[in-house]
Specification:
Layout lengths: L2 E2 L2 H21 L5 E7 L3 H17 L2 E7 L5 H13 L5 E4 L9 H7 L11 H8 L8 H13 L7 E5 L6 H10 L3 E5 L6 H6 L3 E4 L17 E4 L3 E3 L3 E3 L4 H7 L2 E2 L7 H20 L6
Parallel strand pairs: 1-11, 2-3, 2-4, 5-6, 5-7, 7-8, 8-11
Antiparallel strand pairs: 9-10
Helix pairs in contact: 1-10, 2-10, 6-7, 6-10
The protein binds NADPH dihydro-nicotinamide-adenine-dinucleotide phosphate.
């Protein structure tokens, strides 16, 4: 039977460390601050935003919410970001995605100062990740790397198969594994014979968004499985992208859904905000 990789427990341990570091920084006169910008009324986005604010409060991080109506224009949103870029109380700017269709997401993400880009989506930070000199790394993939580290998984020379090539999970996690000297294969919707690719993997990272599409029988005995997928089936039940119980038969370690990758994402947002505030304290901002 596989070991469970307990994201909740790892996240709780990290959040304690973040809270302690935050208190130390506050004593030096710098309170880490996060601005959370929400445009529109998307119910899932509202839930995420309120979870992020609660997590900030618990860690002692100041957070300021900007709730804008769904009709807010692109210019108005860009003006707010310009203000937040200049606001000395703010170390991180988070624009909750998705944005309404009339707003150009790429333009908005590029307007955030790379020094305050705690989501790690600005092309400057993406470029630094690609070139192996990261500043802010995207929270979900960064959380996955912290989980692997906590579990004692050494990626050097390992075969890692990432399923999914999104900008927020698949691509960045593949780059992070490459930086740890893994041999990385990225699979997507046009990949041929996914089962064969998975069967060769020492580590599988699934970020697809399709309930249990990766079969437990495909997993190589002794592999590590990180399931990023969050899929609602029926009224309440959440399942991942991997057939959990069947995967547990073969794998050495598996993340559950929920309670796996999810809690790590917000933890890394707090972590990045703290890192940004430490850079402010040391006056090492670049932009
Ligand atoms: P996207 O929809 O942006 O990307 C999904 C990827 O899966 C695409 O690259 C797509 O390929 C690929 N894909 C789709 N169908 C198949 C298939 N049949 N075989 C192989 N690959 C396939 O999703 P995200 O990356 O944003 O999210 C993925 C999942 O992770 C979702 O369930 C999401 O809810 C969850 N998630 C969880 C987070 C957390 O904190 N726990 C945070 C972020 C996401 P192609 O590019 O060819 O279309």
């Amino acid at each position: 039977m596989a070991e469970l990789i307990d994201g909740k427990a790892i996240a709780a341990e990290m959040r304690q460390e973040i809270a302690a570091d935050t208190q130390a920084l506050i004593k030096q006169g710098v309170t880490p601050g996060l601005a959370v910008v929400l445009v529109g009324e998307d119910p899932a986005s509202r839930v995420y935003v309120s979870m992020k604010e609660k997590a900030c409060a618990a860690a002692g991080i100041f957070s300021d919410e900007y709730k804008l109506s769904a009709e807010t224009g692109e210019v108005e949103l860009l003006e707010l970001i310009t203000e937040l870029n200049a606001d000395e109380k703010i170390d991180g700017i988070l624009v909750q995605l998705p944005l309404p269709e009339h707003i150009d997401e790429a333009k908005v993400l590029e307007a955030i100062s790379p020094d305050k880009d705690v989501d790690g989506f600005h092309p400057y930070n993406v470029g630094r990740l690609v070139t192996g000199n990261p500043l802010f790394q995207p929270c979900t993939p960064y959380g996955i790397m912290k989980m692997l580290e906590h579990t004692g998984v050494d990626l050097k020379g390992k075969e890692v198969v990432v399923v999914g090539r999104s900008n927020i999970v698949g691509k960045p996690v593949a780059l992070m594994c490459l930086a740890e000297h893994a041999t990385v294969t990225i699979c997507h919707s046009r990949t041929q014979d996914l089962a064969k690719k998975i069967a060769a993997a020492d580590v599988v990272i699934a970020a697809v968004g399709r309930p249990e599409m990766i079969k437990g029988s495909w997993i190589k005995p002794g592999a590590v499985v990180i399931d990023v997928g969050v899929n609602r089936v029926g009224d309440k039940k959440l399942v991942g992208d991997v057939e959990f119980e069947a995967a547990c038969e073969n794998a050495a370690a598996v993340t559950p859904v929920p309670g796996g990758v999810g809690p790590m994402t917000i933890t890394m947002l707090l972590y990045n905000t703290l890192v940004s505030a430490k850079r402010r304290a040391k006056k090492t901002l670049r932009f």
